[in-house]
Amino acid sequence: MKYNLFMGLIGLAVLLTACNDFTNQIIETIPGSGTVISETREAHDFSRIQVNLGAQLELTQSGEEGITIEADDNLLSYITTEVVNGQLIVSTPHNTRISPSSVIQLHVGFDTLDALEINGSSDVVADDLDLDALTVTFSGSGSTHFTGTVSQQTIIIKGQATINNLDLNSEDVAIDISGNGTIAVQVDETLDIKVAGMGNISYVGDPAVTKQVSGMANINPL
């Protein structure tokens, strides 16, 4: 009798724990109000950016660091921005999904930039870049259109992305695709290509090309 009661209490405890874990995993969806406003936030001492939500991202190498967000007024409090170990992270709480009435706009001003990581679905534009090296990683989906100069350019696609960087001057470009990517670049010296997924790669210039393809790839000079 005591044994059965003991086992019953253990079973109840396990059930309550499982229910609590399930409750913690419930994702709340917050619809946008339809009233879009702009909010500027401070962000300092970062050289890397990570975006974990769907947005249109505009990067400006102005030397003035900060971020301006255009979104529904009731969603701004769910969009978090913080700098952690030199990385500006834009995200939402893990158990919350926001449903904006229009595409969220992110305007980020920076002094220098080493890495950009897209984990949501984001289109990224940047004009007049002047950087020694930049690594762009898409684990989600989206696109880029960059202009200016980045001497060493690295593009990593784990999700799906379209990269239109024909107006971005580079000496060396490294491409690593394990997802699905369409890439167009301008490169002068070396072009290193690794494709384990699917890739369509076009380039302008006369670089030395090395390639390692275990997936499907079309590689063509323009």
Automatic annotation (TrEMBL):
Record lineage: Bacteria, Bacillati, Chloroflexota, Candidatus Thermofontia, Phototrophicales
Entry-linked InterPro entries: DUF2807
Segments forming domain Putative auto-transporter adhesin head GIN: 45-207
Cross-referenced Pfam families: DUF2807
Keyword Amino-acid biosynthesis carried by entry: no
Species of provenance: Phototrophicus methaneseepsis
Keywords: Signal
Gene3D superfamilies xref list: 2.160.20.120
Signal peptide: 1-18
Protein name per UniProt: DUF2807 domain-containing protein
